[in-house]
């Protein structure tokens, strides 16, 4: 199965060692698997941008996704899942700007 790491530098990286998908730079990693079996290993913080993935990874029911940190998307193709991963990191980078924008504009001028 092809595997890539999507890091905080926003560049694709090939997996260099076996345990790297669990932690990288001290952070937790999760694996997202596309319909074709392509595996994207991303920071858990980035994956938590999605409320759906967040629920899958933190649900108290003891589901496999929660225990293993692996989420399979049988209906999502590889190119689409790649764009989704890119969006997660984009959202993390620019999230602070969105919150600032809404607090700086008063309702009277909006």
Automatic annotation (TrEMBL):
CDD domains: BTB_POZ_EloC. The keyword tRNA-binding does not apply. Pfam families: Skp1_POZ. It is found in: Nucleus. InterPro entries: ELC1, SKP1-like, SKP1/BTB/POZ_sf, Skp1_comp_POZ. The keyword Nucleus applies. GO terms for cellular component: nucleus. One of its GO terms (biological process) is ubiquitin-dependent protein catabolic process. Residues 29-90 form the SKP1 component POZ domain. Pathway: Protein modification; protein ubiquitination. Gene3D superfamilies: Potassium Channel Kv1.1, Chain A. It comes from the Eukaryota. Its main location: nucleus. Keywords: Nucleus. Belongs to the SKP1 family. This is Elongin-C.
């Amino acid at each position: 199965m092809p595997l890539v790491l999507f890091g905080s530098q926003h560049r694709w990286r090939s997996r260099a060692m076996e345990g790297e998908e669990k932690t990288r730079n001290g952070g937790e990693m999760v694996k997202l698997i596309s319909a074709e079996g392509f595996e994207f290993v991303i920071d858990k913080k980035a994956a938590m941008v999605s409320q759906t993935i967040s629920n899958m990874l933190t649900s108290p029911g003891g589901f496999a996704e929660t225990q293993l940190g692996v989420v399979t998307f049988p209906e999502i193709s590889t190119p689409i899942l790649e764009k989704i991963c890119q969006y997660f990191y984009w959202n993390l980078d620019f999230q602070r700007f969105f919150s600032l924008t809404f607090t700086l504009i008063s309702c009277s001028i909006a």
